[in-house]
Design brief:
CATH architecture: Beta Barrel
CATH class: Mainly Beta
Shape: globular
Order of helices and strands: EHEEEEHEEEEHEEEHEE
Radius of gyration: 17 Å
CATH superfamily: Acetoacetate decarboxylase-like
Strand order of the largest sheet: 1-3-4-5-10-11-13
Helix content: 10-25%
Distance between the termini: 25 Å
Structural class: mainly beta
Largest sheet: 7 strands, mixed, barrel
Number of domains: 1
Number of strands: 14
Number of helices: 4
CATH topology: Acetoacetate decarboxylase-like
Amino acid sequence: MSGLTPDHRVRVPLSTQVWDRVTFLHYRAGADELARLLPAGLEPDVCDGSAWVSLTPLIMREVRPSVLPAVPGWSTFVELNIRTYVRDRHGRDGLWFFTLDCPRRLMVWGLNLLGLPYRYRPGDSEVESQLRTGTETVRYSFGHGPHRRELSTVVGDPIRNQSPLDVFLTGRWNAYTTRLGRACRVPAAHEPWRLSRAEVEGSLLSVPGESGLPMLDSAPLVHFSPGVHARLGAPRLEGRSR
């Protein structure tokens, strides 16, 4: 279940990775319309009166299978995902990813074989720290030319006491996908998110609406985290999808 800490342990991870400099942009969405975009066996998870869609740019570091070392340079890249919050037929909650954009073609190919909706998309990131003011700005960019989208995140004050909505939107420990017509659940575990408020600007803010998702507002709730060390388990078959 969603929470500050995982409700399970990933004893033998399939992959380990660092999710670094994560910006969460959370948009309210229509639950009924969103339900039509989900596979059989999953339904939107609702909080504070609505379903939610999140756009999440981040820097991936030290991405590797658990039995192999990270490849210097290649194992670090910027990623962008669009996700929503779901429950399965057993009442377990988790994430459903509509898209995951990554600039590593080989990684996209391999993760597509596992049923994850990865797409190749060039991307870059820049971190600027102001020692005098103690502030940090993270800039993400994806795509080229007229399809280029950017976001600048100015990190604000830490959130000392996370609200139920903060936890609902970030404390997720399962991801769902499909493989060969079967629904799969991928368990994840990591330390609690350290969250901060943040201010954002850039053309990336319009991406969820451009994707045809049932957005109810255009101004997102924003969180930022310096990151976590994540352990991902092997996909577990949950049933047959549509």
